[in-house]
Amino acid sequence: MVKVLPSLLASDFLKLGSDMKRMEEAGADIFHLDIMDGQFVPNISYGIPVCEAIAKKSNIPLDVHLMTEDPEQFVEEFAAMGVEYLSFHIEATSHAHRLITHIQSQGMKAGIVLNPSTPVEAINYVLDIVDFVLVMTVNPGFGGQSFIMSGVDKINELDELRRSKNLDFLIEVDGGVNEETGKLCREAGADLLVSGSFLFKSEDPKQTIMDIKEK
Fold it and tell me: Which residues does UniProt assign to the signal peptide (predicted)?
């Protein structure tokens, strides 16, 4: 069964702790944190002190998505927090192979991110070492956007490569995930589904998480 990752960017920052508890009680598997620097994407989210507070409060693993320039600079800090998953954009570094192995050397699972316009071919040369691939089904930088359907084809392509080459990387999807789009992603081969606004606006997040996993 797929895992559901609430995106904390969609939470009420004034009630972050209680929102986290609500999602944990609803059956969330992993928390997803979007780190934006205002340079790689046109927005700023939260910094290291907030992430440290989240890490101390969380009872489930953390998945950190670096939407930043120079992602290399943050690896040790997130490792020290106990982050389990750390991903970066292929466009943000000239040394993707080295960064992947560095993330892994710090005890984390390393992920590489594909923007909607970035083809799978751009990461073919690291699929044999990466732990997961994050497929963006919206343009990164803002929450609440609509699902871009071409992302399903990309999930299918990654799943076919995974099978044909006998690889074991996970496929994560972020952007516009609800019960309908979640089903399309599951059927295409996704393992991890990030949900933000749809999940946090739900009056029954436990049922919503079940629907994303199974409906």
Answer: none
